[in-house]
Amino acid sequence: MRVDVVTIFPDYLAPLELSLIGKARAAGTLQVEVHDLRRWTHDVHRTVDDTPYGGGPGMVMRPEPWGQALDELAGPETHLVVPSPAGTPFTQATARALAGDPHLLFACGRYEGIDQRVIDHAATRMRVSEISLGDYVLFGGEVAVLVVLEAVTRLLPGVLGNADSLLEESHADGVLEAPMYTKPPTWRGLDVPEILRSGDHGKIARWRREQALLRTAERRPDLLAALEDGDQGT
Ligand code: SAM
User: Fold this and answer.
1) What residue ranges are annotated as transmembrane (predicted)?
2) Ligand 1 center to residue 103 CA distance, Å?
3) In angstroms, rounded to a whole number, what is the distance separating the alpha carbons of residues 141 and 118?
4) Would you say the CB of residue 140 lies under 6 angstroms from ligand 1?
């Protein structure tokens, strides 16, 4: 998968060198390039923003540098992803869909966001998704890109040592994962549930399913309701 990220703060994306994303890059599973939007400015101040039409506080990102950046970086298979608190909520289903794309191009907004014409114009030439991390407002899209890329990269073939991890974890089948335990069997007076040490794999699987459903009912009844509606795409 090829990934391009356009931002006015390239250093914000430094964690993409680390951990399993860094390894996926080193292995060639993921090719990531981070670009400074100011490369596509032409004035002495390298201006990327201006005051909003209609008035109001803050600044809006001007369309010209974005238009040129997209002209240069987009290709026939590009999916433009624009983080925005006004976007569609990001879920595991979104991550699965993005993991199938050959080229993701991320446009990180700052200030009051990007002039809407950039997104509207891009949508006439390529697939565009405006994606929200949640119902809160961040300073910029960079953190959202890190989150989306981490969720997507772990779904790419060969990135996780044991691909079975993907089958049993939270949100894989619409519910949360059951609680997990490791050694020692007793810690600070708390025991690991006996059944997990029984060696009976059938019983363990049933216990885990039960716990997963209980936890989901307690913490995220909305997920169970979606499952009942036949939607496993959380
Ligand atoms: N004025 C915008 C609004 O009210 O919808 C908020 C702009 S925000 C301060 C600046 C940038 O941060 C956005 O363009 C977007 O890239 C990013 N951002 C902020 N909150 C986000 C969220 N919940 N999900 C994804 N991106 C977000």
Assistant:
1) none
2) 23
3) 15
4) yes
